[in-house]
Each structure stands twice: as C-alpha cells, then as structure tokens.
Design goal:
The complex is a heterodimer of chains A (99) and B (193).
Chain A lengths: L2 H21 L3 H25 L4 H31 L4 H4 L5
Chain B lengths: L1 H22 L3 H21 L3 H22 L17 H23 L15 H9 L4 H22 L12 H18 L1
Helix pairs in contact in B: 1-2, 2-3
Chain lengths: 99, 193
C-alpha cells in the first residue's frame, strides 16, 4: 500500500470524528468523537513513520495515547461532577453564557 | 497482495464502526462499536510494522480507556436520550469546507515530504520494540518523564473529581438504612428546587 492510501484513511476517520464533535450534543458522544480523531492522527503518524523510515512518528503516537488517557480521566471526572449537580449531559445545558 | 486485502477489509470495518459510534443515539452501542474500532485500528499498526504501538493501542485504548468509560457510564442515566436540536446550517458548510482543506493537505503531504531525512532511522535488525525503547529512553526521555507526571496528575484529578461524596458506601449499609437515606436525599433535593 502507498502512503497516500493510509493518509486518506486517516483523513476519513478524522472527518468522522470531526462530524461527531460538531454535530452531537451529548457530551459523552463528544468524548467518543475526540478519541476517534486522536486515533485517526495516530494512524497517519504510524504510516509516515514507516514510509520515511523514521521512528519519530511512532514516538508522537505514544505521547498522543498518553494525552488521550489523561484527557479521559479528567474529562470523565468533570462530567460525573456536572451530572451529579444538574442531572444532564446535554451540551446546551452546559453553555451558561448567551452569545 | 495480502497487505492490500487486509488494508481494505480493516479500513471498511473501522470506518463502519466509527460511523456507528458517531451516528447512533444509544450510548451503549456507541461504546461497544468504539471499542471494536479501536481494536481494528491496531491492525493498521501491525500492518505498518509498528508492533509495539499496536499492542499499546489494544492494551491502553480497549483495556484502560474503554473500561474507564464503561465504569464512568454507571454514573449517568446513559440510556436516556439526549434531545439534540441542530439549528445552525452554517455547520454543514464548516464541516464540508474543513473536509476539503484536509483532503488537499493529504494529497500534498507526500509531495512536500519527499526531501525529509530520517532523524532516527529504523533498524530492521533490532525489531520494533527494542528500537522504540532505544529512541524513547534516549532522545525522548524528558518527554517520557513529563508524560508520566501528566498521567499521575490526571489520575489524582480524576479521583478527586469523581470521588466526592463517596465516603458513604451502600454496600456496608442495611436495606432499611439505604431506603431511609434515599428518602432523605429526595426530600432535601425537593427543598432545594
């Protein structure tokens, strides 16, 4: 397979995640879409790492996985706190400022 | 030939799984299809000779992150539908415009990247895991330590945020005590409202 095939796959997955982030109003779904976008970028990094013969891409993918793990821990904690307080995980309820 | 077939099969599976995640209204379907998609993603890493990354993908994403979501969803009324009203047609233009920009960049990227030299070249004789270890613990040691501290901070933050008001354990109470407590909580929440 060529580099372009992997990059196009990565783009398609990233766009699926992007559509999810922009369209969904359920905050849990927003987190899922973020994970999809991070994974899509990881695929692109691994592909470039192979086709250029350079390990830096794989290193970046590892650090992205670490960032994703900590993002989930903090984000889910905040979301649980918000749900206990208001009983809703709708994004429109979180937006407090009108604009 | 084998690689092409595997690539096509796994890309179709991954795209369909992630589409289900984004488009479904049921949080449990979304969670399980996301976990399946993560495992299919690791197949690309194995195809790209990044064995260690593929193993980490399975262990961390499907083992840790998905389990965290599954436990976190116990706190939510996850089967209740969230009413989603979309009132902004500009979003459609925004999404399609960004999609077009990304595709242009993707087609240009290999052309621009042709004169890049490898800073840390891959040694096929070491094997992927050993190679990753050499680069990670020499050139990226500082970033590795910072990532470790970041994960520790995230862990403590998660415990502090999610663990509030958890000092009363239902498993140590009797049935009558639990009923009494739930009635008291409901009465007090009505007073607040």
């Amino acid at each position: 397979m060529t580099l372009n095939a992997y990059l196009i796959l990565s783009t398609i997955l990233f766009c699926i995640g992007l559509i999810g982030v922009i369209r969904r109003k359920n905050v849990l779904m927003l987190f899922f879409s973020t994970e999809i976008m991070l994974n899509a970028v990881n695929v692109g990094f691994a592909a470039i790492s192979k086709f250029h013969g350079d390990l830096t891409g794989q290193m970046f993918a590892f650090f992205i996985i670490a960032v994703a793990a900590s993002e989930v821990a903090i984000g889910l904690g905040l979301l649980i706190l918000w749900y206990k307080r208001t009983g809703s995980i709708n994004l429109d309820d979180i937006a407090g400022m009108k604009g | 030939m084998f690689e092409v077939i595997a690539f096509i099969i796994f890309s179709v599976l991954t795209i369909s799984m992630f589409s289900i995640t984004v488009l479904t209204n049921n949080a449990l379907y979304a969670l399980s299809s996301l976990a399946a998609g993560m495992i299919f993603i690791s197949a690309f890493f194995f195809l790209l000779n990044a064995d260690f990354l593929g193993a980490v993908q399975i262990v961390v994403y499907t083992g840790a992150i998905m389990a965290l979501y599954a436990f976190g969803m116990m706190f939510f009324d996850s089967l209740s539908e969230v009413k989603e009203k979309i009132k902004n047609p500009r979003l459609v233009f925004l999404v399609s415009g960004m999609l077009a920009v990304i595709i242009v960049i993707v087609f240009l990227a290999p052309v621009i990247g042709q004169n890049i030299e490898a800073n840390y070249p891959i040694h096929p004789e070491y094997g992927n895991t050993v190679d990753v270890g050499y680069v990670l613990f020499t050139k990226y040691l500082l970033a590795f330590e910072l990532a470790a501290i970041m994960l520790l901070v995230a862990m403590i933050g998660g415990i502090v945020l999610a663990g509030k008001k958890m000092n009363e354990s239902y498993s140590e109470m009797k049935e009558e005590e639990i009923d009494e407590k739930i009635r008291l909580d409901e009465a007090s929440s009505k007073d607040v409202k």
